[in-house]
DNA polymerase kappa (Chanos chanos), 875 residues
Amino acid sequence: MEGLDRDKINKIILEASKGSKFYENELKKERQVNQRIEKMMQQKAKITEQQLQKAQAEVYKLSAELEMRRDLSRVIVHVDMDAFYAAVEMRDCPELRDKPMAVGSMSMLSTSNYHARRFGVRAAMPGFIAKRLCPNLVIVPTNFDKYRAVSSQVREIFSDYDPHFLPMSLDEAYLDITDHLEQREHWPASRRTYRVCSSQTVEEREGQMLEAEEETDNLSPVLFEDSPTVSPTLPEPAGDVIVFGTCAEEAVREMRFRIEQKTTLTASAGIAPNMMLAKVCSDKNKPNGQYRIPSEHQAVMDFTKDLPVRKVSGIGKVTEKMLGSLDITTCAQLGQKMALLSLLFSETSWHHFLQISLGLGSTHRERDSERKSMSTERTFSEMSDLEEQYALCRELCEDLAQDLQREGLKGKTVTLKLKNVDFEVRTRAFTLQCPVCTTEEIFAAAKDLLKAEVDHVSPQPLKLRLMGVRVSSFINVEEKKPLQKSIVGFLQAGGSDPNHSQRSAPVFRTVADKSSESPRKELSSETGEQEDKPKHQNRWVIDSGGFRAPQQQSFFQRVQSRRLAEESELKAREENAQTSNRPTDTKPVTNADASGPDKAADTKSSTNQESSPAASMPQSLTCPVCFRQMGTIDLTALNRHIDKCLSESVTGCEKTSIDTGQERWSDVCEEKKDQEEENTTSSDSCHSKATPSTSEGDRALVQDLPSKDDGEKPSTSVLNSVSFSTEFGRGGLTPSRPNHDRNSNDCDSHASDHLSHESKPTSVAPLKMNSSNSGGVFSQHSKGTALTCPVCCKPQETDDLSLFNRHVDVCLNQRVLQELRETDSPANGNTEDPQHILKSRGKSKRKGSSPPPSKKPRAVGTRHTIDKFFRGGSR
DNA sequence: CCGCAAACTGCAG
DNA sequence: CTGCGCTGCAGTTTGCGG
């Protein structure tokens, strides 16, 4: 069988890249790394024997501590599908089976089959280079829908062994099978018996068998050195029955067998006492093999001893090189040089190194982390035209805004990323006063950043090959929980209405992500605890079945929630794609449109802080009564709108007819939409559009209000209702309610966040209610059933749950307003500057989550910090 | 000195 | 014939202002 040797491969790759801009940049990066190493060596030269001894003592101490905490009680499995994308494509297209093929494009490959790997064709290699290595290479475009489908099949099997398994990607997951093994011990053989019933024909299976043998012959023997106990990888002829044992190896073998039966794809697995080792193990007998490190101290140390550091997840090319310059290539050497490393690297880094050298890793999941940023970027052929660049920037903002809104996120920091034709990357960031999520808001910031960069290089034009936009610093959604619990009682009282309680009482559940109801159904075991989510992301959602209070999750439980969220997100996306035409009120109206002429002048005239994107960027206001996003900062318009809302509240709920409300709103939106469309034609016009006229008196009122320019407290002279609305809207605490998006129930948490400050427990209810996909609260009702509002107890003439929920919102918010009017005057703290609240909150969050800054000069980025490992541990 | 934001880097999949 | 991705996280460095 043909193939290429390593030298030849390297030579071809070099020749293909040499002289290119990319290559030049690579060389430049390499020189930078070398400089880093040089600096490190200089430091090393200065280290005294005494320092080293002291450091050694510290290392010993920490090692002992870590050793004491070593947990060998868990059996962790890392499963990795073999050449996943390629394998799926080969399965579905038999002609590809005996050809070298890869999945991806001419510019980048995602993966390649084992056939192609013999030519040096690898993942993350550009297709055109792969073609030089292997001219016969077939490149198949990616088909993620297909991979997702297969992935979910595989995950179903995973959940039989660990319902809380942790998926890392479509083709990879960690499982904790400790509990499974305990149960399995007592299982009768019949429960571990599987019949080989493949949909494949015998010939097909034989063909596969041949291929497997073929590959085995051609690949390095080390790669295929299987664990002693591993049984033949391919199923026996049809009709046969396989009985798997009860030990860990047998359980994993059974799992792999089932995967292959179900998908005809093979997987590799690693079994070890922690995730770090399991991951390394899964690679050991790839493809279609498994390897186990027994849960014994000596076995772990034996394995770790000769393990190349590069094999460990988190040690990349640069770290490998830096360690290599200190003569460290294996984990044993890593351990021997820990004292030195502790003097040369940051605390975070050397702690990580120490863990690796001891063969330690996490044995359970850290708490589910929330998303920290969202971005989109695009590579293209050289672009120097300014107009084009701005247009692209806007396009990216648009895409990003859509994604943000889909997840109900708003962030304060906008980052622009640029890569020029020389592959030099620059990022420019700006942090706004208020969190944003709409196209116009993001673009307003991004275009200023772009302009700054254009100015910076002028008179030369910016020659770009990539542009990206990122939003981060999402508003804190924590600290809302107690209140959310308190709403339960309230809602239950309301929910006792026969109309929706008779079938099955509405149930509150906490979910990690808003839209996770549907996928949950697919899961095999539906125990209560497994659905409960960690505190910090509790959201109440109605479901059928019975009331469940939130509980702390243990171990891998959170993982499942994350997976559910992922899956549901996928679903949501698909749904979104199908319903491309949104109602007119969906698009949050742009801010730039709404900014008055004075604003425009502001941005253009000055260069100080005031003209920064934050200052020039108007924020969107949200009506505190009906919670609709105004899409404008025109306070006059908002006031008028609130007046209407309030006057309706006085006359009673039934008057706040959902229908009329919507009509009115869509009228407003039509207006705004027109403006927006006009504006999109020219990026410069963004600041030049004034909102619909305002009277002089109104204008005065507006100017009295706090602006993001000063961030001061609102003037006490403003009308009650206005200061209220300002607090809600400007502070970013009110959920922006994209009433358009059926999938978004998003921002409820933010609202309760706000209300928690107000100490108005009962008032929070409605926000939680409009969450679920189907419209929220009473998603249980059957078609045609009349719905009765739990607040005003009036039957609603609508079948549409989202409308109904909105009505409930309105009712409840009117209650809130009433209560606030009765008990709170602006003087007793309700007018506290929302900016201030946000800011202090942001602070406290960061404090909790970020490790102390390191003082060490040279450090390597490490993915897993020791803090993280400890967090889940006994400390 | 601290805290923060910005800019940049490394890493994984 | 050309020609090296996208997303997200975490960590480090630097400069600023209190």
About this structure: Chain A has a mean pLDDT of 65. The CA atoms of residues 304 and 730 of chain A lie 55 Å apart.
